[in-house]
Each structure stands twice: as C-alpha cells, then as structure tokens.
Amino acid sequence: MTATDNSPNHPRRAVVLLSGGLDSMVCAGLAREQGFEVLALTFDYNQRHRVELDASRKVAARVGVERHVILPLDLRQFGGSALTDDIAVPKDGVGEEIPVTYVPARNLVFLSLALAWAEAAGSSDIFIGVNALDYSGYPDCRPEFIGGFEALARVATKFGDKGGNVKIHAPLQYLKKADIAREAVRLGLETGESWSCYDPLPDGRACGLCDSCRLRRAGFKEAGIEDGTDYAAGDEAA
C-alpha cells in the first residue's frame, strides 16, 4: 500500500498515539469508528507511570487494532520532568504554570515517530489525544502546535513532497474531560482499562492527588459516570 493508493481494496490506516490513558483510548475508538484500521503506537520512555504500558495493551485489544507497537525510548537519559527524573510529582492541585510533569518536547518527539511509521505504512492520518481545556497547561497540547506540526510534516516527508497532506487528528482538542468520559462510554470502551495517574502506588492504585488524577476524577464526576479507577486518596482530597 502506498500513501496515494485510495482504492477500495486498501482500507485506510491511521497511526494512533496510544499511551494507555483515557484520552488516547477514546482517540483510538474514534479512529476505528471513522473506518480506519488502527496502527497503535505506544512509547516505553521509562516513565514513572509504567502501569500505563499494560493499560495500552488492554486498550489495543479492546479497540481491535491492526498492530500495536510499544517502542523503547528512554527519556530518563535526558530527565527534566517529574515523569522521567527524581523529581516529586506535585499533589497540591492544578496550577496556572506549566508543571514539572511536563516532559520536554514529548509530543513533538512522539508525533515525529508517528509520522515516520505513518509514511512507511502508506498512511497520511495520525491521531493524538491532546486537549486544550481540561489539561495541565502543556505547550505541546495547544492547537498552534498541532497546526505547526501539520505544516512541518508537509515539508518533511516524501509524501508531502509529492503534494500530499498529512492530517493530524486531534478530536479531543476542545472537549472537557466530562465529554471525553461520555465519548468513552458511547464508544463502548471500558474506562477502567485506561490509566491516567502520574504517580501510581506500589500496590497498583492511582494516587488520586496528581493533576491527571484530579482532572480525570472531576470529569467522571461531572459526567455522572463510574470511573473504574481505584484511587488511594478519597474524593475529599481531589
């Protein structure tokens, strides 16, 4: 299959960045709903929340992806983030500044590798679960970043050089976490199979206090949907 082959005998493929979190799970489900065969790409970047790698396998199986690649990429060699370095994960609530859980240029790196796989697989479609509403303020989740990467992809690939356009799908960009939870249910996904916590406990429970736990819990509560996540800290702490 080539990037320009749109015949009925060659179904559309899309590379989906699948972290194992709620947002990426919904992205994978939406890609399938839109008729794409899903190539799921997960990164083992030596992150603190490695339980999400197991979650990505469960989600990939649930969605029914064509292929699931877990790619080793040791970002602990660089550090600079509470997720890849010996830095405490903040537990005092979502603030206004970019938090230390931001991994330097992570989505830029991940999208670049997703683009490489997409071009090799003859696909011009990539899905990423970035969000610009209920999120921690990471710069690589903004619409300007997605638009900028699309423009970069056109001049960075053989496909783009021949006049093709790479589409970065960010279907959750302007959804609140409650809306994302509702989409997961609508798509028939098991939300409890996804993982969001940045700092899981040794017993396997989510901490309940990091930014990601707080945003997830608040979203499910607003949506009136059972989360399925076992939190160490109670609702009163979130």
Description:
The protein is α/β, with parallel strands linked by helices and 238 residues long. It has 7 helices and 5 strands, in the order βαβαβαβααβαα. The protein has helices at 22-33, 51-63, 106-120, 143-156, 158-161, 177-186, 211-223; strands at residues 13-17, 37-44, 67-72, 125-127, 167-169. A 5-stranded parallel beta sheet has the order 3-2-1-4-5, sandwiched between helices. Helix 1 packs parallel to helix 2 (51-63) and helix 1 (22-33) packs across helix 6 (177-186). The longest helix has 15 residues, at 106-120. The protein is globular, with a radius of gyration of 17 Å. The termini are far apart.
The description of the largest β-sheet is:
5 strands, parallel
Number of helices: 7
What's the β-strand tally?
5
- Oligomer description: single chain
Structural class: alpha/beta
User: For the CA atoms, what is the radius of gyration?
Assistant: 17 Å
Distance, first to last CA: 49 Å
Strand content: 5-15%
Using the alpha-carbon principal axes, give the shape.
globular
Low-confidence stretches: 1-8
Chain-averaged pLDDT: 91
**H/E series:** EHEHEHEHHEHH
Helix % is 25-40%
Strand order of the largest sheet: 3-2-1-4-5
